[in-house]
Design goal:
Blueprint: H1 16-19, H2 26-42, H3 44-55, H4 63-101, H5 108-131, H6 136-147, H7 154-186, H8 195-232, H9 236-283, H10 290-296, H11 307-334
Helix pairs in contact: 2-9, 3-6, 3-9, 4-7, 4-8, 4-11, 5-7, 6-7, 6-8, 7-8, 8-9, 8-11, 9-11
Length: 335
């Protein structure tokens, strides 16, 4: 096997075998499509319950309730800022990972892939906005509550609407960049597989998992803050009722996005393990020494050696309950 540097950049057009590496993006995309289909079939109750509670809200001037609304609005704004910062960092790192692997004509399929995924996502957002399926309720219930809320002016509603629309649009582009980076890590090194190349690639795969988890956790936390903002406009009993459903919604999407990360990382881990066995066979590493050899090079994918990655994969799943706990703590402070 070659010992060429793993940093060598591919510039020639991708071969048919190399283009097939784009199939590594299929499992996360299929999980996402399945999650949308299931939510459209089962998640309509959030919009119905939320709209009913907002319509029945007593309104009027209640300084304590308005203080809760203002606090919830500021909390949402804080999570929005966090999301933008994480999105900027994630997008920059993901694009750098692609640029490290491919340039020139080799990069064209990645640009086409990125454009296709982003376009499909934006079209889906347009369909959701027009047809208002169950997914629209996540946005629509809070927007309806803010429009009816005396403590929030029309100018503020316009700004909030623009911020959420921007986040929704970038929520398509940034994950598409992460998927492109994931595909780039699936490409074989220009000089062939070697110990150095394999260690470098395993590190890149973990980086993909880390940045993917970061943007998805930020997204779930923002979703939680957004849905709890609707509850803040209601009376206490109605607030608790809506928050119960809202936490379930964030838990659902947290589970879905966790499965998206796992659907890439687990098969890739198995692939890297197979490649590591090939490298060890070529180097004549004795069977009794292989476990230590893998651990020393960061190539062990045993659960006991994967605690940071397990935490990253589970991050979106845990973000929903964390968001709910933050909202409940804020309510206790306010009252």
């Amino acid at each position: 096997m070659s010992t060429d540097s793993p940093a060598r950049v591919r510039t020639a057009p991708l071969s048919a075998a190399e283009r097939r590496r784009f199939w590594w993006s299929a499992p996360p995309l299929l999980v996402l499509v399945l999650a949308h289909l299931v939510f459209d079939l089962t998640g309509g109750g959030y919009a119905r319950v939320g709209a009913g509670l907002v319509a029945a809200a007593p309104g009027g001037d209640d300084p304590r309730r308005e203080a809760v609304v203002v606090a919830a609005l500021l909390a949402w704004a804080a999570f929005a800022v966090v999301w933008f910062v994480v999105a900027a960092g994630t997008g920059w790192i993901a694009w750098r990972m692609v640029a490290e692997r491919v340039r020139g004509r080799a990069r064209r399929p990645f640009v086409i892939f990125l454009a296709a995924v982003a376009l499909a996502g934006l079209v889906h957002l347009g369909v959701v906005d027009r047809m208002e399926p169950a997914l629209y309720g996540i946005f629509g219930v809070t927007l309806q509550a803010l429009i009816a809320e005396p403590a929030v002016g029309s100018a503020q509603v316009t700004v909030v609407r623009a911020v959420v629309a921007t986040i929704n649009g970038l929520s398509v582009l940034i994950p598409a960049l992460v998927l492109a980076a994931a595909v780039a890590t699936a490409l074989p090194p220009v000089g062939g597989w070697s110990e150095v190349a394999l260690v470098h690639r395993a590190r890149q795969v973990r980086q993909v998992v880390a940045i993917g988890a970061a943007i998805l956790v930020a997204g779930i936390l923002h979703m939680g803050a957004w849905t709890q903002l609707a509850g803040a406009t209601l009376a206490v009993d109605a607030d608790h009722a809506l928050d119960l459903v809202a936490v379930a919604v964030t838990l659902y999407w947290g589970a879905a996005t966790t499965l998206m990360i796992a659907s890439f990382y687990l098969p890739m881990g198995l692939r890297l393990s197979d490649l590591a066995r090939g490298v060890m066979d070529a180097q004549g590493i004795p069977e009794a020494e292989r476990r230590d050899w893998l651990t020393a090079r960061g190539l062990s994918f045993e659960p006991s050696q994967q605690l940071p990655q397990i935490a990253a994969v589970a991050g979106p799943l845990l973000a929903g309950p964390v968001s709910g706990a933050i909202g409940a703590a804020a309510e206790r402070v306010a009252f």
